[in-house]
Every structure is written in C-alpha cells, then in structure tokens.
Amino acid sequence: MSNRVDLDRFRELQRLAYQGAEHVASRLEPGVSERMAAAALRRWLERHGVDDWFHVPFAWFGERTAFRNFRIPTQFLPTGRRLEPGMPYVLDAAPVMDGYVADIGFSGCLGGNAAWTRLDRDLSAHRAHILDLVRRRRTFQDIYRAVDERIKEQGRTNRHQVYPGRVIGHRVDRIRVGGPRLVVFDSFGLRTLRTIGRELVKERLEGRSPLWAGGRASAHPPTPGLWAVEPHLGTEDGTVGAKFEELLVVTEDDAFWLDDDLPHVHRWRAA
What we know:
Elements: H1 4-26, H2 34-47, E1 52-61, E2 88-97, E3 100-101, E4 104-109, H3 114-135, H4 140-153, E5 157-158, E6 169-172, E7 183-184, E8 188-189, H5 190-205, E9 211-212, E10 225-229, E11 232-234, E12 241-243, E13 246-250, E14 255-257, H6 263-270
Antiparallel strand pairs: 1-2, 2-3, 2-4, 5-11, 6-9, 6-10, 7-8, 10-13, 11-12, 13-14
Helix pairs in contact: 1-2, 3-4
C-alpha cells in the first residue's frame, strides 16, 4: 500500500492529467480529428512534466465513443474521424511522471446532445456503487457482474467489456525509473509493459490478478493498492458512449476514491 506522500504524488499527476484533458476539450471544434486531439493532449502533458507513458493519449469521437464494431486492438488507436456539432467525445490518457502513474478518462459532448446527457447521468450512479461494493469486500468478479447488471437495468450496454481482457479496471503501481522510455505498438510505454508482466506473474502466484474483469481470475476480494477503474457505458443503438476513469485506493479494510476534486464529480454534483 502506498504511503501518504506517494498518494499525494499520484493525486497530483491525476489532477494534471485531467487539467490537460479539460484544456484540450475546451479547444475542440468541428473539424478536429481524433489524431489531432490525442496529439494535442500528449504535447500539453509533456510540456507540463510528463516523462513517460503507461499508454499514450487516445481520442474517440461519435459512435467510436461506444466502441461500435471494434474487433481488433488497432481500432482503439485515434483515427482521422472529425468532430461535428452535437457529437460525443472521450479523451483517455495514462501519463507517467517520476515513476508515478495516472490513468484518466474524460467524456464530453460538442454542444447539446440529449442522449449523451442521459447517458452521463446514468454513468454517475456507478461511482458510488462501485465504492460501496469494494468496501463490502465483495470479490472483484462479483463487483464486475453487479456493475454489469446495473448497466442492463439502466437500459445501457457494457462497453468496457470490449477492452482487451474485458477489464473494468487494472492495478496501478509505480513504474521503475531507468531503462529506455519507448512507446511500443503506438500505445504503451515499454517500462509499463515490463511492469505489467512482473505484476501478472506475481499476482497469479498468489491467486490474484492485476486485471479486474468478470472471470475466475478476479474471483477474490479487492487487493490492497491503487486501481484505475473505468466503467464505460453505451446507448443500446451503439451511437453514444461515456466513461470515467480514476484511481481507487483499496486498503486492508476500506476503500476510497483518491480524489473528489475531478471534473466529472463536479459536473454530477452540479446536476
């Protein structure tokens, strides 16, 4: 479990990542492409001290926010899809600074879109729901299935099941400083992949997984540490998607969101 100083550093980086996403979102306009938005977010964060990447920024516009017809990993990469009025968007980035990691998802809409507003309202219910279930020490598998059931009750579709591994979350640890800072597969930092590999081996030996999904590997109580949690909802017709992603702190007997001073939390409270 990270100490208070470490948590402060993780929190500072998470806030910086969200500040970058807000900055880029405030400058989105019709004609901007996913590639342009993702590149702008990467430049902003690197100018503000980010020195490596858990994964580089992604941007998804329109029906791609719901991962419509996504079949292979390369479809997650930003494309030339251009933003239009009323179109939803998602910005997603996982920066690293001095070995500390953040992983954020920022949803919005360019102008008014009633379908997105209703979807965002439904998304808001999952933040408290997930925290409550973790605090009750339900297994990660049970929590995943409970979230899926809530999504169905809302008349929505589960879109995080499209992520590689069908994950709703993953473990976050400090990345070891040292070694080449390279991005591979146009997405993930090399040091990140090495860290993930070590964690997979270590956790599997202990009967756990650093990936939070709905399968048997997640049929264990919440593992103490930091978890990037990312529930992702879509409309039934697959044209609109929305998500949030932020760090959840799990202790031996409690859990809490690392920070409540985040854009989606303020938006939901204001609503």
